[in-house]
Amino acid sequence: MRSVPRISMENMKKQVSLVLLAGLISGCAANGRTYSEYLKSQVPLAPDSARVVVYRSGDDSQGSGRDTRLSIDGKIVGKVAHMGFSTFEVPRGSHVIAADLWDSPGACQLKFDARPNTDYYFEVTPRIETLAAGLLLGVVGQALESAGNECGGSFAIAAQPKRAATYALVPLRMTE
């Protein structure tokens, strides 16, 4: 007859902590209006302006408990949560959009040229390279991995075609 293994109090505390952490992280997804609700209430663009839509799908849970900070032309404009989207209006011309975490080294930057009355879609995804470097060497590893890279830091940002982006946006909610 096999005996049932005993669970120590320490192991039980660890398991309870992990369950609580998982619950906390799962509560960090965007919770605003759906993308279809946003489209119905969308206001027209100002003349000579373009719309930027930034989103994070729920395809990867890495970093899901953190909002990604967004900046355009070096100015912080907002954030995007896991399973969320944010929108911004920019004037026509060349711009640099960046995604990062305020407390993590590096950022991913992407240049784009905005044409008036045009929507631009950007997807933010976690970077496994920074996670691996951080697990091996902590913040120093993250800084070394990101140093000199146009796309460093914890998250990448990439332009997406309208068709793919609008499909990905359907289940997402606005970051508030």
- Overall 3D form: globular
Strand order in the largest sheet: 8-7-1-4-9
Q: Which secondary-structure class do the elements indicate?
A: alpha+beta
What gyration radius follows from the Cα positions, in whole Å?
19 Å
The overall pLDDT, averaged over residues, is 83
Pick out the low-confidence regions: 15-27
Strand content: 25-35%
Explain what the structure shows.
The protein has 176 residues and is of the alpha+beta class. It has one domain (30-174). It is 30% helix and 33% strand. The protein contains 4 helices and 9 strands. The strands form 2 sheets. A 5-stranded mixed beta sheet has the order 8-7-1-4-9. Strand 5 and strand 6 (108-114) form a beta hairpin. The longest helix is centred in the last third of the chain and has 19 residues, at 128-146. The protein is globular and about 50 Å long. Mean pLDDT is 83; it is low at 15-27.
Throw out a few tags for this protein:
5-stranded mixed β-sheet; 9 strands; 4-stranded antiparallel β-sheet; alpha+beta; 176 residues; single chain
In short:
This protein is globular.
Write the layout of secondary structure elements.
Elements: H1 9-26, H2 35-41, E1 49-56, E2 68-72, E3 75-80, E4 84-91, E5 93-100, E6 108-114, E7 119-126, H3 128-146, E8 155-160, H4 162-169, E9 173-174
Parallel strand pairs: 1-7, 4-9
Antiparallel strand pairs: 1-4, 2-3, 2-5, 5-6, 7-8
